[in-house]
Amino acid sequence: MEGRELIISPKELYPTESLASIKNDTLQFYVESYTKGEEVESPFVFYFYGNYYIFKGHHIVLAAILAREEKIKAEVIDVKNISFWKEEENIKSTLKSIGKSTLYDFETIGNFTYNSYPHYYEKDC
């Protein structure tokens, strides 16, 4: 998977999976890597109606937030090239299924607040 490079605050990247998908030992490995100043692989993200969403690398993004990284490198991919994600309704239903509580979970663990909450996370959307 290859895309264009984006420098962005990890706090501007929205999850597409719940926290349950993140293994604590993997998260801690990346937190330590950031803290030591080591190079960390870039998460894959996609742009959808005004926001960037994490396609792959939720643990990397959360680790960057925990390590207080102001900006990270991300690879922007075109999800239209990935079968399930090329349908807009599948993206919307995925965000709706994990719900706004996932955003709150990321905020609580990372001790931050998103600037906005995309309405796609709403159960009645």
Q: Could you please describe the fold and organization of this structure?
A:
By secondary structure, this protein is α/β, with parallel strands linked by helices. It is 35% helix and 18% strand. It has three helices and five strands. The protein has a five-stranded mixed β-sheet with strand order 1-5-3-4-2, with helices on one face. Strand 3 (44-48) and strand 4 form a beta hairpin. The longest helix has 23 residues, at 88-110. The radius of gyration is 14 Å and the shape is globular. The mean pLDDT is 94.
CATH topology: Conserved hypothetical protein from pyrococcus furiosus pfu- 392566-001, ParB domain
**What is the count of distinct domains?**
1
Output the CATH homologous superfamily: Conserved hypothetical protein from pyrococcus furiosus pfu- 392566-001, ParB domain
The ordered H/E elements are EEHEEHEH
- The tally of strands reads 5
Structural class given helices, strands, pairing?
Answer: alpha/beta
The helix tally amounts to 3
**Strands in their spatial order, largest beta sheet:** 1-5-3-4-2
Largest pleated sheet: 5 strands, mixed
Stretches where pLDDT falls below 50 for ≥5 residues?
none
Q: Which CATH architecture is right?
A: Alpha-Beta Complex
Report, as a whole number of angstroms, the end-to-end distance.
Answer: 31 Å
The rounded Rg comes to 14 Å
Q: What percent of residues are in strands?
A: 15-25%
